[in-house]
Amino acid sequence: MGIPGHRRWIEVTPDLLDLLSKAGEGADTDELAEQFPAEERDRVRSAVGTLTELGVLVPQEGAPPLPPLWERWGAVAERFHDEARNANYLVHSPARVELVEDIVAEGDSPDIFKEYPDKPVVMLPRRPLRLDERVEEVFATRRTHRRFTGAPVSLDQLGTLLFHSFAPHRFIHGGPFGAQQCRVSSSAGGRHEVEAYVVVYDVEGVQPGLYHYSAARHALELLDPDAPRERVAELTYHQEPSYEGAFTVFTTAVANRLAWKYRHPRAYRLWMYDAGHYGQTFALAATALGLGPFQTVAFADSEVERFLGVDPDEEFAVYLLSAGVPERPGPLVPTDFAFPPPSEVR
Fold first, then answer.
1. Which of 51, 108, 312, 320 is least enclosed by beta carbons within 10 angstroms?
2. How much helix, strand and coil, in percent to the nearest 5, is found in the chain?
3. DSSP secondary structure string for all residues of 72-106
4. Rounded to an integer, what distance in angstroms lies between the CA atom of residue 199 and that of residue 210?
5. Is 249 part of any domain?
């Protein structure tokens, strides 16, 4: 059991667990002791005193109120926040060399690519489309789109978007950690734990279905030919732009690619950062291609993982990206707000 506000833990015996269960949300010490046999009551009072000293139990009259943030997010989030703070990255420390040697000596480094070699493959165009749009135009018109025309997306557009969003552009030598990928999006330690699963609805030259994007081969590997919009709608609480574009991309994190190198609780943050990096690259590349991007985390995690066929203990869903031909391009100024006429502006 974690001690609130401290990076400390205690082992809870079955007897202590029984005591805490009987205490519930709060109890008078004597009344609590009365729930146990007479010969155990002094031990109960002693245990209550010890747990109070540790901060596991708090006297009602002296209980400090939780800050509003943790009242809203709960004690589990507070504990995680505390554990993930102030990690020692051992930069320029002799201990870093020893740690790296220990990690490498263990072996079993995770694969840097995931592939489904026994699945049917759709090879994507090897030469991506040129992104000639001026960068300031892309920044100015980048929007989260929620309405699409229903027109199909070309294979070249999809291939270019997946290449810039998820494929390595080159490789570097990562020293004892082996080859490392260089993608457009930054990734902690070059681990690139993000995988992309593409649900195709309306892409020229690609049959509808659920695919895995092979970053190693720049190809789509068919996992399930039966993946209609209605199925994705069920997974995303019927949030229309999640499935009304030409395709949907579910991204996952292959956790051990990170955990193998970064072995402290703070590293749990890293896949969140990386998911955001990939999401923004996807949105900007889609905008440059004339597509309308959308992104959300509103989906049923466990159901999505079953849909993708991944083991949630090893690989879990993190982000949903989609795109299609937008109903209208992103304007240079906001148009979704009601501005007062000039006469009413003071």
1. 108
2. 40, 15, 45
3. HH-HHHHHHHHHTSS----TT-HHHHHHHHHHHHH
4. 4
5. yes
d(CA 211, CA 208): 9
Averaged pLDDT of the chain: 90
**Three-state DSSP class for residue 130:** coil
Give DSSP secondary structure letters for 167-197. Answer: S-SEEEE-GGG-EEEE-SS--GGG---EEEE
Residue with tokens 């051990």: 256
Residue 65 reports pLDDT greater than 70: no
Which single residue is written with the structure tokens 């869903």?
A: 317
Residue type, 153: V
Looking at residue 245, its pLDDT comes to: 97
Contact 228, 169 (CB under 8 A): no
How do 121-123 and 219-224 pair as beta strands?
antiparallel
| Domain total of the chain | 2
Nearest CA-CA partner of 163 in 112, 199, 128, 122? 128
Express each pLDDT in 297-321 by its tens digit.
999 999 999 999 999 999 999 999 9
Cα four-point dihedral sign 164, 115, 107, 318: positive
pTM across the whole model:
0.81
Name beta bridge partners: 316: 253
Closest among 209, 192, 201 to 256, alpha carbons compared: 192
Q: 153 lies in a domain?
A: yes
Cα-Cα-Cα-Cα dihedral of 182, 186, 192, 195, to 10°? -110
Residue 256, in any domain of the structure: yes
| Digit-coded pLDDT (tens) for 7-42 | 778 888 998 899 989 988 888 899 999 999 999 999
Asked whether 3 and 55 are in contact (CB, 8 A), the reply is yes
Show Cβ contacts of residue 87 under 8 Å, excluding neighbours closer than 6 positions. 264, 265, 266, 267
Burial grade of 142 (CB within 10 A; 0-12, 13-18, 19 or more):
middle
CATH number at residue 191: 3.40.109.10
